[in-house]
Every structure is written in C-alpha cells, then in structure tokens.
Specification:
binds zinc ion, 2 domains, globular, Rossmann fold, 492 residues, 19 strands, alpha/beta, eight-stranded mixed sheet, single chain
C-alpha cells in the first residue's frame, strides 16, 4: 500500500492587517519536502507525526509530498497560495507517475482563506481530488477551529477533527486518519459524510475540552463515535476571525456506508449544541476586573489570558493594556509573555546584559494595540530566540522567536520577542532563567493553548478582553461577509 501525505496549514484572520506570504510558510513551523517531512515530524504531536506512526504500524509506504505551516495571520495572497498548491500537485503527479498510489492523507487546518478563495481548504481538497480521480480515498485531518463547508466533504472521503483544546491530540487524530485510509483501501469500510453547520459564535473560554462546559459536548461526541456504523465525529467550534460566509461552528459525521445515519447523527449533535447555545458564551473580564478578582481570590500565580492579543489566532502580539496596568499598579514579580517588538529587542541587544535603555514598548502595529508603554528598561538576559518546546503540544519541536530579551522595570518583567508565537509552555521563559512558578502575575498572549504548559503552575487563570485586534466582543468586529443571523449577535 502506497499513501501520499502532505499539508498546507493556515488559520487565516481576515481582520489581521499583515498578509501571510510564501515566506511566512518557510519561516513559520516551516516548509518541508519529501523525506524531510518524515525526519521533521516523526514522534511529534502533529497530524503528520500521526500519519507517520500509522504508516509504520500498518506497514504502508509513505510518499511525502509537501508540508507547510505559517503562523496564524492575515489573508494569503493568491500568488503565494498558488505557488504552494502547484508544488503540492506537481509532487503528487510525480508520485503517481513513479508508481500508482492508493490514497492521500492531507494535514489541513480548516480555516484557511486565500485572496479570492474563501474556502482555501476546500480548494486544496478539490484540487487533490481532481488529480487523483474519483476512486482513490482522500482522508483529511482538521483543527478544532475549522470553518467547514459542503465542498470539503464532497471531495474528501473522510475527515477527522481534533478533539482537544489545547490541541494535545493532533498525533492521535493523524493516526486515526491513517487507520481509516488503510481500512478504506482494504475495502473494509465505505465512508459517507454529513455536515451540519451551526450559526453561532463560540467563546474560546468555553472551548477548553478538559473543563466544563466543553467536556460535556466532547462526551457526546465520543459516545456517538462508539455507536455501530459511526467511524468518526468532528465537532468544530469555528474560527470567528475569518470573515467568510461559511464562518461558524459545525458537526461532521463519518458513517460506514449509511448516509442517513451520518445525517441523523450530525443533526442530533448539532441540535444538542444549538439548544445549549447560551452555554458556549462567557464574557471575558476587563484587565482591572481580573486583577481585582484574582487578588481577592489570592491564588498565585494569577494568570491573565490576554485573549484579544492571541498571536496564535493571528493578533499582532504587541497590545500594551495589560502591561500598562501592571506598571500603573506597580506590581512585583509580574511577567508578560511575550511582547512582540523587534525594535525593542534590537535595542536590548545593543544595550547588552545589565544595560539600560528607554523605550516606547509595544503598541506599534495598530492603534487598537496601543498606546506604547514608555519604559526605562534593564536588560536581564538575551536570546537569539531559538529554543526547544518541552510541553505537551509542541514538545521536541524547535521554536524560533527571533532576537529576544528579558527586560524589566522595577517588578514588571517582559519577554520581548521578534516573531509572533503564543506561549505554549514554559520552555522559552526558562531558557532565560525565568522561573514562572515564582511569579505572582503572568500575562500570556494566548487564549487557551498556554494552559497545556501553564495550568500545572496551579494558581488561577482569568480570561480577559484587553484592547487588541482579536477582541472576543464579536459585536466590535467589523464583519462584512459572515452569514446573519448568528447567535448571540442576532436572533436568539
Ligand atoms: Zn486551533
């Protein structure tokens, strides 16, 4: 058995001002070809890592094509996308000429938007379908944050979405996709799919799969997956910063040869979610509300999830509201992870360890992100930004945050970085010598993923909506193209 594997992954925020270019794929998690894909991802927690484990377990031959991941950011220009897609398809055509293949495993995100192509993922799947013909299976993995379309399930044979947020099961879902494609090729199963779209916004704070209320939704998903005839169930919470007509939550059910069962199950889960729609919303706190409430609780470190400036969702990462509040309150053992400000990072390197410099920190990318915080900083430690993740999400993978520095003013510490990446674990802070457990206040530019590496600190976590581009107050986002009505903004 010979299975081609590949992926083009992007979570596109159409509200982010910086476009996502071919170069961003090269410098994100990277752009890999052929055997380099296997060398890079064997044993790591991503879907391709799971494809590889599956291939080794089932003994099928992998034909790795092209794999690229750019960090979440703005719209992908058409020419940059076409260049990626062209190479993926050329490599696929070459693989098929060398020797027939039996199927394709695709590692996709599910919220990719390209200039002129709202449904980027659907376009990739349809193009691969055209290349391989109607008879070969295509099995696709998707992030929990996909905005799904009928086009995708028409052209894929089966899809498998992540079941966790933070996404700690990516490899497991990749392996599940590998299992499915093997069973399809052997003629053991004949998957059919149904999609149920749900017109609702789902707050990130209510998506933590290990905690209520999301754990209950996941229990229903797992229970449905154990029913006879059901092969896989995906509950996608959607990605609301992609202003496209198909934005929103959805359910996809893969059944074995029974379209009626797929439809009925997708509708049952969809109805269950819709009937409980008020549960999937929680208003985040303001910065001062969270600090006041957290201090009253007295469980430290008091961690603030700076959700609106989540670089992992495509926000710029230089919002200063939390930092300015830390300074105003003259907090001690306070830490900001991370502040994206390449200019300040360069100044820190020029000043050297122990040096001091004055700076207007952050708040430079967009008026909503500012104003910059005027600071007199002491340089505590410097870094070239390279480190190895040690948490459950990216453990073993190399992170590259560019020129970086640990700087401080009195009790307020900031890790200044040059690249936009959310803090997924404590490894980078530790590389400077920062012990997060000793901090009293930690602000993280992340919505949920940081929990995989920081919840173990104990303390308390508070979701906040500071002034930044990715506000979770959806009424403030300048939507033009999403469908209406969507709960809770319109209707009930
Ligand atoms: Zn996600």
């Amino acid at each position: 058995m010979r299975i081609a594997i590949g992926g083009i992954l992007h979570e596109t925020s159409t509200f982010a001002t910086v476009p996502t270019t071919y170069r961003d794929f090269e410098t994100g998690l990277g752009l890999y070809r052929g055997d380099d894909i296997v060398a890079k991802f064997r044993g790591t927690n991503n879907c391709t890592g799971g494809f590889i484990t599956g291939a080794e377990r089932h003994g099928f031959e992998m034909v790795p094509l092209l794999w690229g991941f750019a960090y979440p950011s703005g719209l992908i220009p058409r020419a940059d996308y076409d260049r990626l897609k062209r190479e993926l398809l050329q490599r696929l055509a070459k693989a098929m000429t060398d020797k027939p293949i039996d199927g394709v495993l695709l590692d996709l995100h599910g919220a990719m938007v390209v200039e002129g192509i709202d449904d980027g993922d659907g376009d990739v799947i349809e193009s691969v379908r055209r290349a391989v013909g109607q008879d070969l299976p295509i099995v696709t993995t998707f992030d929990l944050h996909g905005n799904h379309t009928q086009r995708r399930i028409e052209h894929a044979s089966a899809v498998v979405g992540y079941d966790t947020y933070p996404h700690i099961d990516m490899a497991a879902r990749g392996e599940e996709a590998a299992d499915l494609i093997v069973r399809i090729v052997r003629g053991e199963i004949r998957p059919v799919m149904a999609l149920r779209e749900l017109p609702l916004f789902w707050s990130a704070a209510c998506q933590v799969t290990a905690h209520p209320p999301m754990d209950e939704a996941m229990r229903l998903v797992f229970e449905a997956e154990r029913r006879p005839g059901i092969l896989s169930v995906t509950l996608a919470t959607g990605f609301p910063w992609a202003d496209v007509p198909h934005m929103g939550a959805s359910v996809i059910v893969v059944a074995d040869g029974d379209p009626g069962l797929a439809r009925k199950t997708a509708d049952e889960i969809g109805d269950w979610v819709w009937q409980r729609r008020e549960r999937w919303h929680r208003r985040p706190l303001t910065v001062s509300e969270a600090l006041d409430f957290g201090d009253k609780q007295g469980r430290y470190p008091l961690m603030l999830a700076d959700m609106a400036d989540n670089t992992g969702g495509g926000a710029p990462g230089d919002s200063t509201e939390v930092l300015r509040e830390f300074i105003k309150r003259d907090l001690h053992d306070a830490l900001v992870l991370y502040m994206v400000d390449p200019e300040a990072a360069r100044q820190a390197h020029a000043a050297g360890v122990g040096g001091r410099f004055q700076v207007e920190l952050g708040g430079k990318s967009h008026p909503v992100q500012g104003p910059p915080a005027p600071m007199e900083l002491e340089v505590v430690a410097l870094s070239d930004g390279r480190f190895v993740y040690d948490g459950p999400m990216y453990g073993g993978l190399t992170g590259e945050l560019g020129l970086s520095a640990w700087v401080r003013q009195r009790g307020v510490n900031v890790v200044v970085v040059s690249a936009r990446m959310q803090p997924l674990d404590q490894a980078f802070a530790r590389s400077f010598g920062i012990d997060c457990a000793k901090m009293r206040y930690i602000s993280l530019k992340s919505a949920v993923h940081f929990r995989s590496g920081f919840e173990k600190l104990g303390g308390s976590i508070h979701n906040i909506d500071a002034s930044a581009l990715h506000t979770h107050d959806f009424a403030r986002l300048p939507y033009q193209r999403r469908k209406k009505p969507m709960y809770p903004l319109e209707g009930s």
